[in-house]
């Protein structure tokens, strides 16, 4: 799966580099260290994402929630794909609702902003890219800051 996802990983890396260069550089530093650390070298050499984790959500309604895995104040990137209609990305606390068609990418500080995705007609998969705090702390990638871009 990781080998087949190289293009998706590259796309998410480029998007992150554009919207939050500091987070991108911290992720690159962490990945570089993992590729040279004896305990992680074999897995990390196949991994091309600057994000330290990817969650896969398939055909699931997500109730309004905040993400527990991310690293405040950095972005999570959510990529959705599949064969479905009627996709909506909702931020109820702000009264915002966005179209969420196949191929959409959403950047959100999921640990800070409550969000949810209701049921769709068809089959939907979401790849949620995020940074794990413990990896970034281990990599000493610096104190995370809000994006100023």
From TrEMBL:
Which InterPro entries does UniProt cross-reference here?
A: 2OGFeDO_JBP1/TET_oxygenase_dom
The source's superkingdom equals: Eukaryota
- Which cofactors does the annotated protein need, by name? Fe(2+)
Pinpoint the 2OGFeDO JBP1/TET oxygenase domain residues.
4-133
Iron among keywords: yes
- On whether Protease is a keyword of this UniProt record, the answer is no
**What UniProt keywords apply to this chain's record, in alphabetical order?**
Dioxygenase, Iron, Metal-binding, Oxidoreductase
Q: Which Pfam families match?
A: Tet_JBP (PF12851)
Q: Which molecular-function annotation in GO is an example for this chain?
A: metal ion binding
- Designated name of the protein: 2OGFeDO JBP1/TET oxygenase domain-containing protein
Upper lineage ranks?
Eukaryota, Fungi, Dikarya, Basidiomycota, Agaricomycotina
